[in-house]
Amino acid sequence: MQLREILSLDCTRCAVQDSSKKKLLEAISQLAAPKLAGVTRNDVFDSLVQRERLGSTGIGLGIAIPHGRLEKASKPVAVLLTMQSPVDFDAIDKQPVDIIFALLVPENEPEAHLRTLSEVARKLNNKECCRALRKAGNDDELYDLFVQDDSVCS
């Protein structure tokens, strides 16, 4: 699955100003829910919070990949955010995060969920990619960096 199939420009935000993990999860929910017919913001938020209770999705080096499964979702949806100032996300390395890639998937598609998480983690493991994402000046640039086949993040 191509990331451009699940991540849209209107779910990409550069230099977000939220100040807490909870506010970030709420912002993700607000962006993702309209893309998922029959799914509410609360459904998305509850799914993300439920997953965070199992352990933080802050994977270190300033990156978090919150994700959740939704019973009523018919397709996967992603949200990409960079932060104006890093936010405490209970990451495994205890460092605040400034790059967040959230993934919401239908409950009955665990294989696609894992493949997509693996692809995102591969991209975000690239230091040049993360540096470019952090320097992105607007939503369009951030989106293009992440989904273009010829970008530093490909």
Structure explained in plain terms:
The two termini are 14 Å apart. The chain is of the alpha/beta class. The chain has helices at residues 21-32, 41-54, 110-124, 127-135, 139-147, and strands spanning 7-16, 58-60, 63-64, 67-70, 77-87, 97-106. The model has no long low-confidence stretch (mean pLDDT 92). Strands 1, 2, 3, 4, 5 and 6 form a 6-stranded mixed β-sheet that branches. It has one domain (3-146): Mannitol-specific EII, Chain A. It has 5 helices and 6 strands; from the N terminus they run βααβββββααα. This is PTS IIA-like nitrogen-regulatory protein PtsN.
The end-to-end distance, rounded to whole angstroms, is 14 Å
Structural class designation = alpha/beta
Count of beta strands:
6
Computed over alpha carbons, the radius of gyration is 14 Å
Per CATH, what is the topology? Mannitol-specific EII, Chain A
**CATH level 1 name:** Alpha Beta
- Runs in which pLDDT lies below 50 for 5 or more consecutive residues are none
The rough form would be described as: globular
Q: What's the structural domain tally?
A: 1
- SSE string: EHHEEEEEHHH
| Beta content | 25-35%
- Per CATH, the architecture is 3-Layer(aba) Sandwich
Q: Report the biggest beta sheet as strand number plus sense, adding barrel if it closes.
A: 6 strands, mixed
Binned, the helix content reads 25-40%
What is the CATH superfamily classification?
Mannitol-specific EII, Chain A
Our count of helices gives 5
Overall average pLDDT:
92
